[in-house]
Amino acid sequence: MDGAPSQIYSNFSTTEIRRTPVNSDLNSRRASFVIRLKQKRKYWQRYQYPCVKQGMELAITAALFFCILLGGLFLTSWKIHQKRRTLPPGPIPLPFLGTLRTIKPDLLYNTYLQLSEKYGPVVTVWMGSEPVVLLCGYDTVKDALVNHAEEFGGRAVVSSDIKVTGSTGIISSNGAEWQARRRFTITTLRNFGMGKRSMDERVQLEAHKLIQVIKDTDGKAFNPMKQLQSSVANVIFLVVFGERFDYKDQDLLQLLHIVDQHMLFLRSSVGQLYNSIPTIMDYLPGPHHRILKESQFLRDFIQKKIDSHRLTLDTEFPRDFIDFFLMKENKKEFGFKNENLVASVFDILIAGIETTAGSILYSLLVMVKYPHIQVPT
């Protein structure tokens, strides 16, 4: 018994001695684990957490954008459906795009004829979210413009023209101001010979110059469109500016290029898309930015001519369209301001040069294809 406590003490001491390194190793591993945990937490806070946060923000933004897009599609579809109930029949439009999928810009007349055969002489097409009613056939057009002239007397909204002229000219204007400028324009052009023999004399003088330019080609093949545009432009310039330009004048060539590109743009798919959804297209890349920027050159050209006319204006002897307009402006008449004059001249040039030159070119092609027409009777 005397040796028992000693034995117990000996065993206890041995046990304690043996456990001490185990506890030390455990504490060491625990401290190492805590250190690694802190390191991982710092790494997470520094690198992983910002990435996850950014990813969550992108996901939330994408979800909100998707919800807004769905809401916009639903709202647009509902508005289109409400409008269709009061409009003539036509193809079913898509939100934002309208019926552009059914229209071929290079063959508009064929597209409209096909639509009239399917839906009747009065058809509704959609330029984006805006409806456009088509009148197909001579009798339908005559009935609308003659028997219902007041109802069909408005002008269409052409977004590209509004972007350039601000809806202050002739093409994209409406209301009392437009009616006053339209009456003034028609009266002034008639005073300068439109539809009269005096205008025929101006046209014949320019035609002789055109023939001389064609003779200078020595019978070689060429595209006469530029020469035709130059001759038509000079006739219009004589009425609007009181002067003409040489066919090789750089300002004239630049102006004709802008007019040509502007008309090509209006007939293109991009042009129709811009006129349908101009607010969205303004933020998208494309040729419309270049076309609209080039149109500013034409506006600057017109403004220079107006400024020179204003300095030499003689109210007793008005020389041209600009002089008559300036006289209206000086009297502070309704709808006759400088911006209206710039926009009106811009519209006259855009609407008059390319269309008239194209008609003459088409007539020449008909005479080439049917030579017997050229033989005088």
State the main characteristics.
single chain; 377 residues; mainly alpha; 13 helices; disordered N terminus
How does this structure look, described?
The chain is mainly alpha-helical and 377 residues long. The chain is 69% helix and 3% strand. It has helices at 3-84, 108-119, 138-147, 159-165, 175-191, 197-215, 225-240, 250-267, 269-276, 278-281, 287-311, 321-330, 338-369, and strands spanning 122-127, 130-135. A two-stranded antiparallel sheet has the order 1-2. A hairpin with a 2-residue loop joins strand 1 and strand 2. It is elongated, with a radius of gyration of 38 Å. The N and C termini lie far apart (157 Å).
Detail the topology: elements first, then pairings.
Blueprint (H helix, E strand, L loop, with lengths): L2 H82 L23 H12 L2 E6 L2 E6 L2 H10 L11 H7 L9 H17 L5 H19 L9 H16 L9 H18 L1 H8 L1 H4 L5 H25 L9 H10 L7 H32 L8
Antiparallel strand pairs: 1-2
InterPro entries: Cyt_P450, Cyt_P450_E_grp-I, Cyt_P450_sf, Cytochrome_P450_fam2
Pfam families: p450
Membrane topology: Peripheral membrane protein
Quick structural overview:
The chain is mostly helical and 377 residues long. Helices cover 69% and strands 3% of the residues.
